[in-house]
Amino acid sequence: MARHTEPLPSGELLDGPTNRRSGGTWLERFAAVVLRRRRAVLVATLLLTALAGVYGGGVVDHLSNGGYAASTRDLRIAEDTLQEKFGVSKPHLLLLLESGTEVDSPATAAAGTAYTERVRRQPGVASAESYWTTGDTSMRARDGRSAVVAVRLSGDDDRVQDTTARLVPRLRGEHPPFEVGVTGEAEANAELQRQSDEDLVRAELVAAPLILLVLLLVFRTVAAALLPFLVGVVGVALTLAILQGVTEFTQVSIFSLNLTTALGLGLAVDYSLLLLMRFREESGKGLDPHTAAIVTVRTAGRTVFFSSLTVALCLSALLIFPLYFLRSLAYAAIPAVLTVGVAAIVVLPAALLALGRWLDAGDVTPLLRGFRRRERSAEPGPPFWSRVARRVSRRPLLVAMPVVILLVGLGLPFTQAKFGLTDERVLPLSAEAHRTARSVERHFAAGALNPVHAVLRDAPADEQAGYFRRVSRLDGVEYLDTPLGAYADGKRVGRADLPARAYVRGDVTRLLIVPSDNAFSPRSEEIVRKIRAMPAPGSVHVAGDAARFADTKSVIGDRLPYALGIIVILMFVLLYLFTGSLLVPAKAILFNTLSLTASFGAMVFIFQDGHLKWLVGDFTSTGYLDVTVPVLMFCAAFGLSMDYEVFLMSRIREQYSVHRDNTRAVIEGVGRTGPIVTAAAVLIGGVLLALASSDISVLKLLGLGMFLAVLVDAVLIRGVLVPAFMLVMGKANWWAPRPLRRFHARFGITESD
After folding, report:
1. CA contacts within 13 A on the Cβ side of 663
2. What is the pLDDT of residue 624?
3. What is the CA angle 573-305-339, rounded to 5?
4. Which of 543, 514, 513, 510 is nearest to 447 (CA)?
5. 3-class SS at 475?
6. How far, rounded to the nearest angstrom, does the alpha carbon of residue 213 sit from its chain's CA centroid?
7. Exposure of 594 by Cβ count < 10 A (0-12 exposed, 13-18 middle, 19+ buried)?
8. How far apart are CA 422 and CA 434, in angstroms?
9. How confident is the model at residue 378, as a pLDDT?
10. What's the number of CA atoms in the CB half-sphere (13 Å) around residue 38?
11. Of 90, 73, 67, 85, which Cα lies nearest the Cα of 544?
């Protein structure tokens, strides 16, 4: 790293990196060692990758499906009390028994009771209750021709999923006089896992050939085009091995595989493209392959190292959320990014020298050979991006303002965003869990099957009726079932639906609050909040899906400022260490946020409001976004945006250090990195679009949202706003006060040029 020993004037503009040849930089020394032993490095890499593949190949059997919701102390107390005192807990499976006759007819009732008992005796079943065994009228359809069986399974999440896979095929289908359908959280999770595996294979089969074709056009030879796959395979194999180890200590989501593949392959393409372009550029200057490779590692390799660190730190913010779904995505993404970055710096240069003349042999794009000759001419960069940069430089403000207005306009729908939790509606309509759930929704009082549960402890008997009336007056409460009867709108409207023992056990009273809307609606969430805040004649705790959603949203909202703070502070510090500027990090954070807000607005317009479904195929619009997805999108897409920021700023900084002309440095930097950023965005966009082809709507949302974020960032932010901003600010881009200049001179991430 560069060291400036002389004092610098206060407020002086930053100079370029200090030339220091003695001994070379640590990257030069590292590259020299790797390249001297390139065959040993490649053989060791292949052996390590094979061992990692063997060890991590079975990781899918140890992954879990869940972790989408938080569990607060109040929720756990309510759930434990319901289980201990009343034997009540949320069923894992809901079996819909449809009959052509009345379920109350003697023959049908006898068959229903026998079926319930048969389910109850199955291994792994903790309890099974139905309309026929409980008399609970909420478990009978409005038309009286179908009923449900609520099944609770024993064991942890993994055991529940194993039991579901074994049990469901026996329970569904024809069981005269019933046609049995299956839904519920366990069945939805099982189908999500199966669909995720199928989508992963399909995405790889569809994306890989398309990506290879684009790579051939960009890299021009088969050998060069296969290099990103080499880097990607190394990174993904090592990540799977790391995930296998992580599963020994904590739960890891099945969706981590999708993210590992998408990020691993996408960033492998990005980093390989940057390194190979720089290697060819240095070779075109007349350097021998060994020297060109060392210069490539020292310049582009430094950028790759810093970029992978930046993306990994952005994704580390996911670890702050107490949901193992988000945490496990960080467990997968962080090693995927870092291993791909290291593989790109270590394996790719060694492979470049090992291939030798074969690297450029067998050009499959003869039509581009004229472009190759132009590329090696005296032009500072490809004509298109050079022309774009020059046009922006003439009237930067006039060019930038329409782009800012466009991005703000795209982001406006995000102000109307609503949030919920994942349920069976993320599956395609043809899925068993989704189809059966819609039938239950049509024929049953869905709110009664999924009520808000409240447990009231140590409540004086003479104060209970007044409390029940107050709860029943809350907006969104259809009715309240209590030991004193049913209440609606402050009045008693009937007898209790269940026997008295179902409501009172010792000093604990159980209340069933039936909401008018579904559990993930704003009104149901507000019911939970108001019950907790309302004065009660004893201690009160709330459970149910509405409570779980309210707690998850609250926990994410509480942790989100810390996560954003971590990202902003880390990115500001790292970009300052990389550039020595205070203005460049602030600009990067502002523009990245603007880009992501535009993508979030598009997601609300498409997935929440249900417009433009033809873009990604049919899906069920729930009227809200899954509360965890924007968090994941922000961390991942912000990291990828910083990836391109580092690509561009490293080249602008390098050019500025040569001639001290800010305008020229910006034009040359955009001209040289424009093709790389564009090609990288197209390639990683292809990987993300393959993710958007999933039949699971939450993966569609994630894939399309990140694709739009990458596209907007590569074209509008890096191509227009960043150069316009830097052209307007001029030399002020590189300003820093004297104390920070001294700090950067001593600790900054700069290399000799």
Report:
1. 8
2. 86
3. 120
4. 514
5. coil
6. 27
7. buried
8. 12
9. 39
10. 18
11. 90
Exposure class string for 24-33: b at 16+ Cβ within 10 A, else e: bbebbebbee
Task: Retrieve residue 605's tokens.
Answer: 């317009």
**How many Cα atoms occupy the beta-carbon half-sphere of 439 within 13 Å?**
24
Distance CA 646, CA 583 (A): 14
- pTM of this prediction exceeds 0.85: no
Structure-token match 């702050």, residue found: 320
Tell me how far CA of residue 81 lies from CA of 75, 531, 547, 592, 651, in angstroms: 10, 17, 15, 47, 62
What is the rounded distance in angstroms from the CA atom of residue 548 to the CA atom of residue 422? 12
Question: Mind listing the pLDDT tens digit for each residue in 404-421?
Answer: 999 999 999 999 988 888
Q: What pLDDT, on a 0 to 100 scale, did the predictor assign at position 364?
A: 66
Residue identified by tokens 């190949």 is 57
Beta carbons within 8 Å of 253's beta carbon, 6+ residues apart:
63, 64, 65, 66, 67, 324, 325, 328, 329
Residues 20, 27: contact at Cβ < 8 Å? no
Structure-block tokens of residue 205: 């089969």
φ/ψ (deg, to 5) at 183: -145, -165
3-class DSSP state for residue 35? Answer: helix
CA atoms within 13 A on the CB side of 669: 31
Bridge partners (DSSP) listed for residue 509: 456, 504
Residue pointed to by tokens 């669909």: 195
Hey, is 179 helix, strand or coil?
Answer: strand
The pLDDT tens digits of the residues spanning 456-478 come to 998 888 888 899 999 999 999 99
CA distance 582 to 307: 18
CA separation for the pair 108, 147 (Å, rounded)? 11
List the one residue out of 557, 551, 558 whose CA is nearest residue 528: 551
Helices assigned H by DSSP within 37-156: 38-56, 73-86, 106-120, 131-134
Closest CA to 616 of 745, 706, 554: 706
Nearest alpha-carbon partner for 270 in 313, 227, 207: 227
CB count in 10 Å sphere of residue 621: 15
The dihedral through the CA atoms of 495, 498, 501, 502 has a sign that is: negative
Mean pLDDT of the 352-362 span = 80
Query: What is the average pLDDT value for the chain, to the nearest integer?
Result: 84
| pLDDT tier at 149, thresholds 50, 70, 90 | very high
Q: In the numeric block, which tokens belong to residue 638?
A: 């912000």
What is the distance, to the nearest Å, from the Cα of residue 95 to the centroid of all Cα atoms in its chain?
A: 32
Q: How far apart are CA 326 and CA 318, in angstroms?
A: 6
Angle at 694 between CA 689 and CA 700, to 5 degrees: 65
| CA nearest to 644, candidates 712, 577, 692 | 712
What does the block give as tokens for 709? 């974020």
Task: Count the Cβ atoms, other than its own, within 10 Å of residue 380.
Answer: 13
Tokens 């609970």 sit on residue:
136
Tokens of residue 491, six digits: 């009045």
pLDDT at 497: 65
CB of 344 closer than 8 Å to CB of 268? yes
Cα dihedral across residues 472, 478, 480, 486: positive or negative: positive
Residues 6+ apart with CB under 8 A from 14: 579, 580, 581, 734, 735, 736, 741, 744
Region of 91 please: left (phi>0), alpha (psi -120 to 50) or beta: beta
- Percentage with pLDDT > 90 across the chain: 27
Q: Supply the Cα-derived Rg of the chain in whole angstroms.
A: 30
Q: Count CB neighbours of 117 within 10 A.
A: 13
Nearby residues of 323 by Cβ (< 8 Å), 6 or more positions away: 67, 68, 69, 70, 552, 555, 556, 628
Phi and psi of 598, rounded to 5°?
-60, -40
pLDDT digits (tens, 9 = 90+) for 231-243: 989 998 999 999 9
